[in-house]
């Protein structure tokens, strides 16, 4: 097993566990640790003034250290106290899986960390974003419940085939953009593809809409008043660039509402507008308002149509509670309602999320089809018929019957048996020697074996995924590509060693290191590196070595002249040291 389990992780289904990977803490270099420390020191200094108060409280409650990249085992020991856990994954995982993890109170953390040259922002999910962004806020009980509920509802939303194409494109961009040697033309090509996909998505799916809600709350949410909002979104909390940008008047602030579901975003650019919720409880109110629009709660013809367009495993639940899980491929409609539905390939039948005995994918390997609705000329739905009614209409074991539905679908055959739900209602009728027709079309013939007719007046609910997770083999996801590890050269290996020496000196594990010697090597061989000089400056100031500190500042001024884009990062790093001294 690639992770250390606990009572929360033990509850995860197998298909989610396939995404978990080992954190491999020893793989983090001293440069990685320095990047974490810089971002966290900068964030804590700035966010203590602009983040929601839960953020600072949460840093302590979740055991997030400013000086060290979090160890997942250590985080889990603390997170379980608030009923949560964390797992490491490889970059972006499919949105439905990401949300399902949340439904189990599990925080998904991309364990890689951004490179130094992407210290302000990376499109790739990393441990700064996940660990320092998401984790602290879940210490707030109201927000934690919102996150769990969001996952519970979100994993039931129905996607379109284009959603998955967009997910793959975003994952690809995040991987190549964070890789050290990707040609710019390849990045441009990937960004253009995402732009093209976003502009040609057609009618947005439920997944696309709830992904918008997730973006404008969990990732880029503001809270409080429009005039003086605070930050709670992880994308803002983990970006030292955007957390400052979002507080300026250049970013439009809008009251949060369900309209956010219909507001798209561009992952490749800073956000020009953000939504402000008055409090965390209001987030749940809007989420429920959105859920009321989903096929999960509305069912009907629209729900079946969404399942067909998804071309993915989904479930239709009938008014009797019978659940049909498979890939839906056809609906015959009558009076704007589904009157006959079919699936292709492996299908399973369930009741209350438990597979019915004798109705696994082995029994329905080639698909499933059934009429829905009322019988012609009979106002009483089959599910509401008493035993006396059923006998009167010859819907009885051993009877040969011809059932004609309002839609024109006709089922003729010998009744073998009926399956009832816990309320005593018939949910399934099994026939032999059965013929099913619709007008002149043959839908089922006796040579195909037993015919199982689902009973239900209407489609009560439609949602993503199977009713019973054990009905299908869901442990089959394979990434088309994985995150690219930076190739180490002799120069980078030596630079990592220098960072480690200074880290060891600061932490007292090796105080014999000559900081001046390290500085001279940085100046001579790593003229573009600036972060190690900031760390040397901090040590010089703390030791009262003003002459050494001044020499470092002069060097950093030269670095700024050569690389003006680094100016504000260097200035902020120096200011942090000076502030801590003054404090």
UniProtKB/TrEMBL annotation:
<comment type="similarity">
    <text>Belongs to the biopterin-dependent aromatic amino acid hydroxylase family.</text>
</comment>
<keyword id="KW-0503">Monooxygenase</keyword>
<protein>
    <submittedName>
        <fullName>Aromatic amino acid hydroxylase</fullName>
        <ecNumber>1.14.16.-</ecNumber>
    </submittedName>
</protein>
<feature type="domain" description="Biopterin-dependent aromatic amino acid hydroxylase family profile">
    <location>
        <begin position="1"/>
        <end position="342"/>
    </location>
</feature>
<keyword id="KW-0479">Metal-binding</keyword>
<dbReference type="GO" id="GO:0016491">
    <property type="term" value="F:oxidoreductase activity"/>
</dbReference>
<dbReference type="InterPro" id="IPR001273">
    <property type="entry name" value="ArAA_hydroxylase"/>
</dbReference>
<dbReference type="InterPro" id="IPR036329">
    <property type="entry name" value="Aro-AA_hydroxylase_C_sf"/>
</dbReference>
<keyword id="KW-0560">Oxidoreductase</keyword>
<keyword id="KW-0408">Iron</keyword>
<dbReference type="Pfam" id="PF00351">
    <property type="entry name" value="Biopterin_H"/>
</dbReference>
<dbReference type="InterPro" id="IPR019774">
    <property type="entry name" value="Aromatic-AA_hydroxylase_C"/>
</dbReference>
<dbReference type="InterPro" id="IPR036951">
    <property type="entry name" value="ArAA_hydroxylase_sf"/>
</dbReference>
């Amino acid at each position: 097993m690639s992770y250390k389990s606990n009572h929360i992780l033990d509850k995860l289904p197998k298909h989610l566990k396939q995404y978990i990977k080992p954190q491999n803490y020893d793989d983090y270099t001293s440069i990685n640790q320095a990047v974490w420390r810089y971002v966290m020191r900068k964030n804590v200094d700035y966010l203590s003034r602009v983040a929601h108060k839960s953020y600072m409280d949460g840093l302590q409650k979740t055991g997030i250290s400013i000086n060290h990249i979090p160890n997942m085992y250590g985080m889990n020991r603390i997170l379980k106290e608030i009923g949560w856990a964390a797992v490491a994954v490889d970059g972006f995982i499919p949105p439905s899986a990401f949300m399902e993890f949340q439904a189990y109170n599990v925080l998904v953390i991309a364990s890689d960390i951004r490179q130094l040259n992407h210290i302000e922002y990376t499109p790739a999910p990393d441990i700064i974003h996940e660990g320092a962004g998401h984790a602290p806020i879940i210490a707030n009980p109201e927000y934690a419940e919102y996150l769990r509920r969001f996952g519970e509802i979100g994993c039931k939303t129905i996607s379109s085939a284009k959603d998955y194409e967009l997910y793959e494109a975003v994952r690809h961009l995040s991987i190549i953009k964070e890789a050290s040697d990707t040609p710019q033309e390849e990045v441009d090509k990937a960004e253009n593809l995402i732009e093209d996909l976003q502009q040609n998505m057609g009618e947005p799916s439920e997944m696309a809409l709830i992904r918008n809600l997730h973006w404008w709350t969990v990732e880029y949410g503001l809270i409080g008043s429009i005039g003086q909002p605070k930050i709670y979104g992880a994308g803002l909390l983990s970006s030292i660039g955007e957390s400052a940008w979002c507080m300026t008047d250049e970013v439009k602030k809008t009251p949060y509402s369900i309209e956010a579901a219909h507001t798209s975003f561009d992952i490749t650019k800073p956000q020009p507008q953000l939504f402000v919720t008055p409090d965390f409880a209001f987030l749940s109110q809007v989420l429920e308002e959105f859920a009321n629009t989903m096929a999960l709660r509305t069912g009907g013809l629209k729900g079946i149509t969404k399942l067909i367009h998804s071309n993915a495993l989904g479930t239709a639940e009938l008014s009797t509670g019978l659940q049909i899980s498979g890939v839906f491929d056809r609906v015959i409609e009558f009076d704007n309602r589904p009157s006959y539905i079919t699936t292709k390939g492996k299908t399973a039948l369930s009741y209350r999320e438990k597979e019915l005995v004798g109705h696994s994918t082995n029994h329905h390997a080639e698909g499933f089809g059934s009429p829905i609705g009322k019988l012609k000329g009979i106002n009483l739905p089959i599910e509401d018929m008493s035993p006396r009614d059923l006998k009167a209409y010859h819907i009885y074991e051993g009877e040969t019957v011809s059932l004609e539905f309002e839609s024109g679908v006709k089922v003729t055959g010998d009744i073998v048996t009926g399956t009832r739900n816990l309320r005593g209602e018939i949910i399934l009728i099994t026939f032999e020697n059965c013929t099913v027709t619709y007008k002149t079309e043959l839908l089922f013939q006796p040579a195909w074996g037993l015919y199982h007719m689902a009973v239900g007046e209407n489609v009560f609910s439609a949602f993503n995924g199977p009713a019973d997770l054990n009905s299908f083999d869901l442990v089959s996801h394979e990434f088309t590509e994985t995150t690219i590890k930076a190739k180490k050269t002799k120069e980078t290996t030596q630079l990592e060693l220098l960072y480690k020496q200074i880290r060891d000196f600061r932490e007292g594990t090796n105080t014999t290191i000559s900081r001046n010697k390290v500085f001279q090597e940085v100046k001579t061989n790593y003229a573009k590196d600036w972060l190690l000089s900031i760390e040397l400056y901090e040590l010089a100031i703390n030791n009262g070595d003003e002459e050494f500190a001044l020499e470092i500042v002069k060097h950093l001024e030269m670095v700024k002249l050569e690389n003006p884009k680094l100016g504000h990062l260097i200035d902020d790093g120096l200011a942090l040291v000076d502030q801590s001294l003054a404090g």
